Amino acid sequence: MHHFQYHSGVLHAEDVPLPNIAAAIGTPFYCYSSATLTRHYKVFTDALAGLDSLVCFSAKANGNLAVLRLLGDLGAGCDVVSGGELKRALAAGIPGEKIVFSGVGKTSEELTLALENSVGQINVESEPELNRLNGIATKLGKSAPVALRVNPDIHAATHDKIATGRREDKFGVAWEDAPRLYKAAHDMNGIDVRGIAVHIGSQITDLAPFEAAFSKVAGLVNKIRDTGIDIRTIDLGGGLGVSYKHDNATPPSPAEYGEVVKRTVGDLGCKVIFEPGRVIAANAGILVTKVIYVKPGETKEFVIVDAAMNDLIRPAMYGAHHDVLPISEENAGSPKTKMDIVGPVCESGDRFVRDASLAALKEEDLVVFMTAGAYGAVMSSTYNARPLIPEVLVHGESFAVIRKRPKVEDLWVLESLPDWMDD
Ligand SMILES: *Cc1c(COP(=O)(O)O)cnc(C)c1O
User: Fold this and answer.
1) At CA 130, angle to CA 235 and CA 233, rounded to 5?
2) Ligand 1 pocket check: which of 79, 125, 204, 243 to mutate, most ligand atoms within 8 Å of Cβ?
3) How far, in Å, from the CA of 203 to the mean position of ligand 1?
């Protein structure tokens, strides 16, 4: 459920007509709905009723300060995967104790930053990282709150690039190694062993791999506890998928996911941490773009829009589908034309839609790519010297620009000519 609907034939974000935003700030832009973010967060937390839980929104899905603040005000913490995201979460007002720090390659500087800001949990992914963290914490006179991220060797049916829980993936410590590493961690002065963490991938639309992974985790918790080491937190990661096609079978609901969680780890007496990103943010955001040209081709039309792969890379990177909606509902009913919708970037992969039969579009028409609130703006770049595009947050009848469109000249402010070149 989201709040991007037609009213009187015009697509709105909540109560704001999208053409009004386009007229005010130009195109392209990302637009997020506060009501949808709020709703998704509440549906997710409602599904966990009865559990001692903490929902840490995954900042890498959408790290805008206003988005993090909105979720933080609802009680969310943050899952971060770099020092930059850690600073972002703190800047958004997320308290350190509600921040979980994940990632395979945390540097000494990042681990120090995490300890200085008293993050709630550091998910350690390797023995060398454990040793490094112990050394840093000891030097600082601190005890680092640690969960070991284990690799459960579970194959979730998702895109290869976002499956993370298989033996051959770089993430987590090997399952067989976990008991030995828990013992080592327990004996370290700079480490406070708190819990266990798993994250098996993203855009997972089947509950079976979650159930398999969480059951394995429950078994490991008991095994570690049998060795006299207490496990107090279980971090189940993120990964719940969303529907990118409005007419497609919907992925499992948070409620069904919550049932799996309760069934597998609910009676271990642990605090359960979640790191959802996509399921909270994806359908809460859209990308609004404008048609520059309609170019007739031999077999189909090329509709060239002013957004490109640098703004939304998911189609080029993962072959991902995003539903396309015209801003005017009238257009939606017009005769269908076979078309590709492409951006201006000089790569054939800069294509949002291939061989689709859609209502005809013409120059200046506004079109919307749906389900762009997660892994959209955060993955954008300035390729082809295209400045990052604005982000807008809608709240009822109001909207605010929550990231401005930079000046083109800002792209090279950090660049300079070496002194052996002529001015
Ligand atoms: C990416 C990531 C998440 C969020 O995944 P979603 O599929 O967006 O829910 C959570 N935890 C970790 C460790 C991640 O890397």
Assistant:
1) 20
2) 79
3) 9
What spacing in Å lies between the alpha carbon of 290 and ligand 1's midpoint? 31
Rounded Cα–Cα distance for residues 312 and 288 (Å) = 11
pLDDT averaged over consecutive 10-residue blocks of the chain (423 residues)? 93 98 98 98 97 98 98 98 98 98 97 98 97 98 97 85 81 92 97 97 93 96 96 97 81 95 97 98 98 93 97 96 91 83 95 92 96 98 98 98 97 96 81
9 C-beta neighbours (distance < 10 Å), count = 12
Give the ligand 1 atom nearest the CA of 276.
9
Domain layout of the chain by residue ranges: 4-31+283-412, 103-274
Distance between terminal CA atoms of the chain?
57
The CATH code of domain 4-31+283-412 reads 2.40.37.10
Provide residues with CB under 6 Å of ligand 1: 58, 60-61, 79, 81, 102, 199, 202, 237-239, 275-279, 374
CATH superfamily label, 103-274: Alanine racemase (3.20.20.10)
SS3 401: strand
Distance, CA 231 to ligand 1 centroid (Å)?
22
Q: What is the DSSP string of 17-78?
A: EHHHHHHHH-SSEEEEEHHHHHHHHHHHHHTTTTS-EEEEEETTT---HHHHHHHHHTT-EE
- Angle 40-238-92 from CA coordinates, rounded to 5°: 65
Ligand 1 center to residue 60 CA distance, Å? 8
pLDDT attached to residue 248: 66
Can you read off the two tokens belonging to residue 361? 């579009």
375-406 per-residue burial string, b: 16 or more CB within 10 A, e: under 16: bbbeebeeeeebbbbbbbbbbeeebeebbebe
Tokens of 270: 């642990």
Catalytic residue list contains 56? no
Which atom from ligand 1 is nearest to the alpha carbon of 241? 7
CA distance 401 to 395: 11
Ligand 1 atom closest to Cα of residue 279: 9
pTM: 0.96
- Contact at 8 Å (CB) between 190 and 133? yes
Q: For residues 194 and 120, what is the distance between their CA atoms, to the nearest angstrom? A: 10
d(CA 36, CA 51): 24
